[in-house]
């Protein structure tokens, strides 16, 4: 049984009968509830068709009967019935029967009305059947009737169930249906009113459309027509303007050609001034034509985006465009010709006219950039050609010379051809030198001078030229593309080319490198005449600078060097370095030998120093004409001198005998002699360099003079620090060590009774003074004579001042015993002996020092006068000492010595020494030595320590007053 078309399948397992029901009644009764519910679900479908359902049910029963007839065995219920796609029980389809049943399908019996064509074969088959078959059919017919009855009963049950369901639904939904009916009646009235409103609204909309929309549509159409008319009018206006510009351009070009033809006719009779005037007039016509061409081109360029609707779509415009392009080409050709003529003749009038034409065409920045590129390319090509060694070799037919001549063979030497080879080598070098310098002269002076004049003329015209209509400066417009001024580009390019080409030539040939830097010394000539050199190259550059001064503001003098010239010369820095090294190598060699740690030979100080000074002077004088090279040479020389000064401390003799001052020695030690030789060399070197600095002009060579003076100060400072100051300190230390014995030999109790032992038999002085005098005599006779005479007075004065100050301070700290007068007499005798020795050291009438910056005489004057003053005060009473103290400089060494002597007179010296001693509680001798050392370097610290001690020393009023006069408090 198949479901009706469009009926959805409702699967229901309850509609399937049991697989093997025992009896038909049992099947009907057992499957009744399930089948009824399944059929009810099918009947409730909205698309249920009862006729179709019944027809399908009957067809299923017929199919089952046919299968039952053809089966050999009685069919089982499970084989007769099947579940339809709709979930209802129906007979099995023929396809599911066994083969025997399918073969007997022709003889099956149907409950449906048979057609005449089908009934005839059945009757024929029945007539031929046997009696057994008739009985079998009887049984099958009975079974079919039972099945049909069962199907009809099921249908009745389903109809009853459907009727009950319909009744139930009607009963349940009747109130809601009535309510909906009333609502529909109410809504029908509202819908009629709404429909009437919508109809009236449609009428109003139609009226509005007729009044607004239709006129708007018409207005839109009219506006479109108006735009078309406006576009046509604008196109006509543009066409009129275009035609007018084209006619003006045609007229201008005719006038231009006419003037050019007239110029060409009388060209042979024109002078230079007339050429300029003709060029000016011609340039004005050309600039006007260029302005018209630029305006027409802008108009056409603005119309290109419009395509077929623009000005370019007009036939008359298309015919004129080739004419405009031809005119542009003609104007550009004339403009370029005028630029070439203007740069060639250095005519600012022609150049200005051509640049105005380029500005009117809108190509000024591009034109200037192209011109500058061409000029810089000329610089590169000419520089490379001038230093092309291969081209020179081909021109001369000679190979590039080498620095070292080949060693002659024995046969050459025996044959006497050695001189001929040297002559040939000399000729080769001379030929190469002449050719190379001739090329460089032509390059720098002639060719680069011409290019430089063109570049500066171009920049000058650009700077002065301004468009009359727009007010735009031509140089500002060109810089938007160039980025830098043409002159700066030229100088930078020239410097780079010279640096690259000279570097390449020098790298390829050492002979060329030496020729361009230090020069080549000619062989077999007296003095070795030098060919070439950096100075010759500088002379070419000076000539070049002088030539371009007419066109530029470039200056290269002793007082001022323009930035452009500095850029160019910095490009030749490698050649400059080679020249400077060659000019100063001997200075470096001598100075390095002097300070060489492994030097074994004696130093001829004056001669070697004078040689170095002469070398420095010659090097400086040789480059006086070039300020930058002078700076380089001076910097190199001063660097070498300063290097010598920094290395001086490494060669100073530092052994035990170097600073030993021994009165028993009969001569200076080798170390002392070496140190003195270093001092003589440094002094002579510094004096000579100072003389070289003085020879420099104050205005033109102030830098050289300043640098040389700085080098002199460096030498003096280093020599004083590592040689002179240690010598003075050694003498001071020797005197201080021996002076400490004064307190033992004079102030001790045993010393007063042993005069014969402690006094020198010859002079009557004490033993310590005799040792000091011997040491001073050794300095006078053996040490000072080996130092420069100009420094002896300064050294002697420093040593004498140190000895005198040391003696005065120790004398002030001398404790006076009960027999004070005897001690004072011995002290006066010792002082006289020391004064005599110091006088011999510095001379009876000291001459003014000639050391200049070498002198350091601060606080070392009136040495002998201070000693005489102290000797007088030894035997004065306190009142007389007060009168003498009024003429003493407060807080000086003599003031400290007098104050301590007065404290010793008052018997408070021990208390003062104890108060000023360090916390370590040293002995009295150590305290005295420490106080003397402190006062020798600076009295300020000692006075600061003495003031608290003197306050607590319980001195009498007169002594206190004198001490306060001599040592006034700094806080007060």
UniProtKB/TrEMBL annotation:
An example Gene Ontology biological process: intra-Golgi vesicle-mediated transport
Biased segments, Low complexity type: 1-17, 106-135
Pfam family, one: COG5_C
Keywords per UniProt: Golgi apparatus, Membrane
Cited InterPro entries: Cog5, COG5_helical, COG5_N
Keyword Membrane attributed: yes
Membrane topology summary: Peripheral membrane protein
Natural source organism: Pseudozyma antarctica (strain T-34) (Yeast)
KW Phosphoprotein (keyword) present: no
Conserved oligomeric Golgi complex subunit 5 helical domain span: 311-545
Intracellular or extracellular location(s): Golgi apparatus membrane
Domain Conserved oligomeric Golgi complex subunit 5 N-terminal, first and last residues per copy: 137-249
Protein name (database record): Conserved oligomeric Golgi complex subunit 5
One GO cellular component term noted in the UniProt record for this chain: Golgi membrane
Region (Disordered): 1-32, 74-145
Main location: Golgi
């Amino acid at each position: 049984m198949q479901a009706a078309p469009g009926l959805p399948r409702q699967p229901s397992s309850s509609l399937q009968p049991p697989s093997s029901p025992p009896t038909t009644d049992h099947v009907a009764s057992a499957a009744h509830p399930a089948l009824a519910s399944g059929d009810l679900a099918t009947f409730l479908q909205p698309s249920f068709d009862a006729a179709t359902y019944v027809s399908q049910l009957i067809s299923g029963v017929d199919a089952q009967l046919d299968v039952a007839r053809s089966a050999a065995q009685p069919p089982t219920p499970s084989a007769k019935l099947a579940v339809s796609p709709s979930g209802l029980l129906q007979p099995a389809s023929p396809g599911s029967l066994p083969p025997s049943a399918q073969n007997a399908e022709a003889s099956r019996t149907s409950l449906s009305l048979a057609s005449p064509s089908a009934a005839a074969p059945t009757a024929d088959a029945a007539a031929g059947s046997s009696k057994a078959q008739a009985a079998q059919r009887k049984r099958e017919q009975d079974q079919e009737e039972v099945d049909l009855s069962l199907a009809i009963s099921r249908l009745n049950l389903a109809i009853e169930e459907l009727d009950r369901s319909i009744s139930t639904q009607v009963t349940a939904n009747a109130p809601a249906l009535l309510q909906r009916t009333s609502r529909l009646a109410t809504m029908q009235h509202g819908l009629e009113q709404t429909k009437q409103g919508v109809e009236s609204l449609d009428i109003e909309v139609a009226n509005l459309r007729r009044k607004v929309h239709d006129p708007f549509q018409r207005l839109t159409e009219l506006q479109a027509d108006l735009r078309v008319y406006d576009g046509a009018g604008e196109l006509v206006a543009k066409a009129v303007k275009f035609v007018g510009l084209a006619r003006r351009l045609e007229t201008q070009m005719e006038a231009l050609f006419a003037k050019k033809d007239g110029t060409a006719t009388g060209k042979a009779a024109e002078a230079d001034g007339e050429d300029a005037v003709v060029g000016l007039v011609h340039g004005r016509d050309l600039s006007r034509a260029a302005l018209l061409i630029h305006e027409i081109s802008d108009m056409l360029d603005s119309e290109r985006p419009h395509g077929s609707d623009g000005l370019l779509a007009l036939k008359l415009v298309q015919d004129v465009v080739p004419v405009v392009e031809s005119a542009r080409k003609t104007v550009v050709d004339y403009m370029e010709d005028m630029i070439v003529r203007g740069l060639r003749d250095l005519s600012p009038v022609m150049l200005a006219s051509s640049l105005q034409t380029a500005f009117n065409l809108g190509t000024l920045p591009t034109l200037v950039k192209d011109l500058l590129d061409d000029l810089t390319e000329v610089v590169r090509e000419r520089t490379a050609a001038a230093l092309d060694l291969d081209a020179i070799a081909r021109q001369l037919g000679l190979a590039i010379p080498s620095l070292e001549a080949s060693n002659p063979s024995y046969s050459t030497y025996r044959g006497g051809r050695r001189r001929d080879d040297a002559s040939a080598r000399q000729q080769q070098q001379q030929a190469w030198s002449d050719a190379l310098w001739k090329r460089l002269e032509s390059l720098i002076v002639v060719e680069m001078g011409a290019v430089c004049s063109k570049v500066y003329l171009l920049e000058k015209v650009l700077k002065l030229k301004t468009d009359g209509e727009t007010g735009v400066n031509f140089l500002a417009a060109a810089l938007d593309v160039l980025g830098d001024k043409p002159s700066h580009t030229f100088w930078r390019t020239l410097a780079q080319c010279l640096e690259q080409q000279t570097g390449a030539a020098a790298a390829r040939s050492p002979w060329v490198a030496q020729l361009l830097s230090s020069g080549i010394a000619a062989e077999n000539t007296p003095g070795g005449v030098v060919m070439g050199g950096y100075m010759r190259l500088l002379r070419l550059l000076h000539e070049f600078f002088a030539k371009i001064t007419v066109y530029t503001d470039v200056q290269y003098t002793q007082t001022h060097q323009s930035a452009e010239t500095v850029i160019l010369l910095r490009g030749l820095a490698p050649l400059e370095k080679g020249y400077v090294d060659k000019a100063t190598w001997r200075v470096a060699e001598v100075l390095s030998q002097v300070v060489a740690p492994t030097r074994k030979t004696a130093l001829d100080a004056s001669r070697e120093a004078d040689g170095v000074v002469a070398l420095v002077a010659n090097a400086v004088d040789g480059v006086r004409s070039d300020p930058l090279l002078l700076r380089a040479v001076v910097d190199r020389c001063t660097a070498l001198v300063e290097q010598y000064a920094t290395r001086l401390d490494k060669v100073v003799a530092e052994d035990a005998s170097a600073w030993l001052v021994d009165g028993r020695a009969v001569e200076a030690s080798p170390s002392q002699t070496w140190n003195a030789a270093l001092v003589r060399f440094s002094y002579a070197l510094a004096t000579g360099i100072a003389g070289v600095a003085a020879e420099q002009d104050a205005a033109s060579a102030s830098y050289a003079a300043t640098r040389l003076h700085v080098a002199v100060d460096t030498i003096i400072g280093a020599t004083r620090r590592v040689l002179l100051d240690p010598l003075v300190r050694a003498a001071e230390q020797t005197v201080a060590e021996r002076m400490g014995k004064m307190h033992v030999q004079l102030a001790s109790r045993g010393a007063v009774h042993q005069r014969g032992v402690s006094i020198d038999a010859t002079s009557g002085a004490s033993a310590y003074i005799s040792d000091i005098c011997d040491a001073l005599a050794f300095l006078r006779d053996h040490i000072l004579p080996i130092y420069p005479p100009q420094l002896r007075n300064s050294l002697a004065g420093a040593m004498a001042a140190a000895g005198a100050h040391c003696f005065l301070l120790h004398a002030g700290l001398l404790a006076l015993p009960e027999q004070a007068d005897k001690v004072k007499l011995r002290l006066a005798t010792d002082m006289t002996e020391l004064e005599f020795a110091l006088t011999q050291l510095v001379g009876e009438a000291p001459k003014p020092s000639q050391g200049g910056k070498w002198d350091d005489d601060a606080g070392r004057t009136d040495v002998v006068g201070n000693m005489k003053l102290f000797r007088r005060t030894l035997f004065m009473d306190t009142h007389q000492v007060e009168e003498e103290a009024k003429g003493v400089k407060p807080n000086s060494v003599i003031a400290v010595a007098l104050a301590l002597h007065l404290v010793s007179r008052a018997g408070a010296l021990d208390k003062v020494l104890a108060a000023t001693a360090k916390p370590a509680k040293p002995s009295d001798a150590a305290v005295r030595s420490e106080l003397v050392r402190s006062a020798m370097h600076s009295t300020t610290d000692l006075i600061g320590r003495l003031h608290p001690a003197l306050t607590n020393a319980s001195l009498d009023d007169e002594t206190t007053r004198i001490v306060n006069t001599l040592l006034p408090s700094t806080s007060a």
